Every structure is written in structure tokens, then in C-alpha cells.
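user: Kindly work through both lines:
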Amino acid sequence: MLRSLAIAFIACLVFFPSLCRGETPNYRGAHTFRTPYDTKYRKIETYLITIREMIHGFGSPSFLTQQSRIRRYLKMARSFKFQEEGLLSSGIQQDNWQLPEETERLGSGDCEDLAIWLYCQLLDEGFSNIRFTLGLAGGENKTMHAWVTWYEKGKTYILDPSRTGGIYRSSQSGPITYHPYYSYYLDEKWHHR
């Protein structure tokens, strides 16, 4: 038992050093050329090409306007049924990232699908200060999760369409903590370790 705990602690230090040391998560990150999720994100990136001209044609709306739009889209995203993906016949967890239209047609999705839907809606509204983010989230038992991160006036906000609540300040996310690993904005990528 003690040996298992020691191995888990060493693995945590190697793969998630800031999380193990209890450090504040790095929400800004550093640009990177690759992430482990690039193959999955490529589908989203291709989709975003269709709305790219509209995205760059707008300036960022005021804080209150952004907040109002975010609240409206979070409410819409929460109307979708949260549904974990099933196991494949091989016993491996299936993980297909849906495009926004697929989520709307099915009326359901998992955390990535709901976060992608919200991310694309906000991009379509002209937001340039958001990222689709992947990392660990939860209370004591953190799991891989997806959300949208909103950067505004030097502050960082968590927009999590798969959880009830509103817009969380990254420093005040309550009993659920968020530790980003990778984030995306259009064709840009960041790592957060």
C-alpha cells in the first residue's frame, strides 16, 4: 500500500507538478506547437475556418455585453442533456468530439461537446478573448474535463457549461477547482504546465 502511494506521488510530481505542490494554476499558459489533443481539435479547427472572417471582423464588446451574452449561451448550453460517452466493444472509453450542429441535433453531449458548443457560439459572437480549455477539474477526485476560459480586464473566468452555476473567477471557483493543461484559440495552442 505504501509503495503504491509513493509511486502515485512520484507520477504526480512528474506529470502534474503544479497540482501536486498545491500551486495556483497557470491560466495564461505558454504557446506550444503540439498537444496530445491535436487530432481531435483538428476537426474543430476545420469547422472554425467557416466562421473565421466573422470573428476577425468584430471588436470585443464591452464587459457587460460580453457577460450578458455568456450568461445567455451558458443557459442554452445547459439545456442540452449531459451524457457521458459509452464504452467501445473493446472496453475503451469512446471520446468523439462533436461539432456544434451535432450537439444541437442530438440535444446532448459530454463536457467537451458542451464546451465546444459554447466556445463556437462565443467565437461567432465576436469574442477574441476566450479559449477552449482541457484540464483537471473537480473536488477531491479530479477528472479530465473541458470548459471555456474567458480573459477580461486582467481577470480569468471559468465558463463551464456542464456544471450548474454561473461565471466563475478562476481564483474563486468554489469547491470545484480547475487546473488547465491545454487551451486553444482558433489555430493557436497553449500548454499550462
